[in-house]
Amino acid sequence: MQPSKDICWSLTIGMVQLAFMVLPVQAQECSKPIGKPNMVLAEDSITKVTFGDGTKAKFECATGYIRAGGSLSVTCTAGVWSEVELTCEKRSCGTPGEVQNGKYILDGILFGAKATVTCDTGYKLVGSSVRNCLVGGWDGRVPVCEVVKCGKPPAIVNGGPVSPPEEEYNYRSVVEYSCEKDFTLFGAKSIVCEKDGKFQPAPPECKMVSCPTPVVENGVRTEGRLPPYKHKSFVTYKCNDGYKMTGEASLTCEKEGWSASIPTCKAIDGPTDPGPTDPPAANNHTWAILGSVLGAVVVLCIIGVIYKFRDRFRVGYSGNVATNISEDREL
């Protein structure tokens, strides 16, 4: 029985020694290493659960990131990994390109960024308005901004576009209208193709314009045509003698009617008869002076006549006396 106890004891001691020999070996292994953000274990290392002493594990940058520096690998030494030196940064997609008649609004050019397209006024987007910065660069294609187009311009009665209408018009194209003979254009003469693909403002209208024949009593037409009076016709009137005009002498037929009210001719008032009333007191002195002057003139005329006859009488008398004396002497 004694030999069996020795054998058991020997086996026990051997097992303990073996355990002490195995433990140091197990303590030298490393579990999976943990890297920094934005990196993962490489394919040849990711499947392992433990790493023996002195073995290496390899990292690589995560999707969308690129190596910025540092070693890719770490080493297991006595159960401890060496420091991770690898650094990763976001991949750059660069410029998304140029958009003709539009532009990008960017929130960055690194992995995960977005580029939103806006077209200029009068242009519309064809395709997606957003591009994403992915591993391989910007996704999708450079979008296209096409010019907005308008269809045929509206037709109008008694008129139409000056030039033959086309099937479509580009943004900011202008269409000009005109009216047929004897019709007048009301509203905007031209319309424009706007950013919403419609013409603005509303097209004009063509209407017949006529004005009633003016009636000016006690007056005559001196200029202008005979009725009917259409748009822009004009007439000029003059009053008869003894009448005075009130209002505008010339009228023009406008869209809303005559440019002014029809003039009138009113009789000119003559001087009033004062009747047999005495002259105003203010004129009495004037009449007195005038009467004195006239009286003096009459007196002077009478005196002149008297003197004239007296001289003639004296000449005649002297001749007669001389004749008588000579006759007496002869006797």
TrEMBL record:
* Signal peptide positions (record): 1-27
The record, for PROSITE patterns, names: SUSHI
Give the transmembrane ranges: 287-307
Keywords on record: Disulfide bond, Membrane, Repeat, Signal, Sushi, Transmembrane, Transmembrane helix
Q: Which cysteine pairs make disulfide bonds?
A: C61-C88, C150-C193, C179-C206
**InterPro entries with a match to the protein in the record:** SEZ6_CSMD_C4BPB_Regulators (IPR051277), Sushi/SCR/CCP_sf (IPR035976), Sushi_SCR_CCP_dom (IPR000436)
- Give every Sushi domain span: 28-90, 91-147, 148-208, 209-267
Q: What is this protein called?
A: Sushi domain-containing protein
The species this protein was found in: Hucho hucho
